[in-house]
Design goal:
Layout (H helix, E strand, L loop, with lengths): L5 H24 L13 H18 L14 H44 L6 H14 L3 H14 L10 H11 L3
Length: 179
């Protein structure tokens, strides 16, 4: 017997895909090459290029198109199984997109700090600026991103009852690293 939640699952998938699309728009808009060619191999610009590659990779990874087995008879149960599979895919893509977006933001801050240091401002010097970038990137963890996205979804009043666990998201990401 159907649980009647398929419309909620459909709406949740649509929300996640919309969030992912917005993240991809922002990721694609960030420059990856400095105006000064001497800066090309610096830490921040290397991070920005890696983020662009990661953003393209997550787009290029194919969805799991295998047909999941329904836990019960009938088309509603089959739709439920398929929606849960698509929900995991959309959730994990949004998670990975958020991670890339946050890494880009840290690298963009680094570009600003570096420009300030190079123009004679800023007291911490390039070692401090590079260290700050490394510290920010180290704080962008799957656990922090998962908790932040979950809290935002709850604050927005979104239906989160069947959202995948962090472990499921991490397994999905690992399985796509070979795409």
């Amino acid at each position: 017997m159907s649980d009647g939640l398929n419309p909620l699952r459909e709406a949740r998938v649509a929300e996640l895909l919309s969030d992912f699309r917005t993240l991809q728009f922002y990721i694609a808009a960030v420059p990856t090459a400095p105006s000064n060619p001497d800066d090309y191999y610096t830490e921040g610009w290397a991070a920005l290029r890696q983020c662009a590659l990661d953003g393209q990779h997550i787009l290029n990874c194919a969805a799991d198109i295998s047909i999941p087995c329904a836990s019960g008879p009938g088309p509603d149960e089959q739709a439920k199984a398929e929606l849960k599979q698509v929900l995991l895919d959309a959730y994990a893509r949004r998670h990975e997109g958020q991670k890339i977006y946050l890494r880009q933001a840290a690298a963009q801050r680094w570009v600003g700090w570096r420009d300030s240091v190079m123009s004679g401002g800023g007291g911490q010097g390039m070692e401090g600026v590079d260290g700050q970038l490394r510290a920010e990137l180290a704080n962008i963890t799957d656990e922090a991103i998962y908790a932040e996205l979950q809290a935002n979804d709850i604050n927005l009043g979104r239906w989160v009852d069947e959202d995948p666990s962090l472990g499921e998201v991490q397994r999905w990401i690992r399985s796509r690293s070979r795409c």
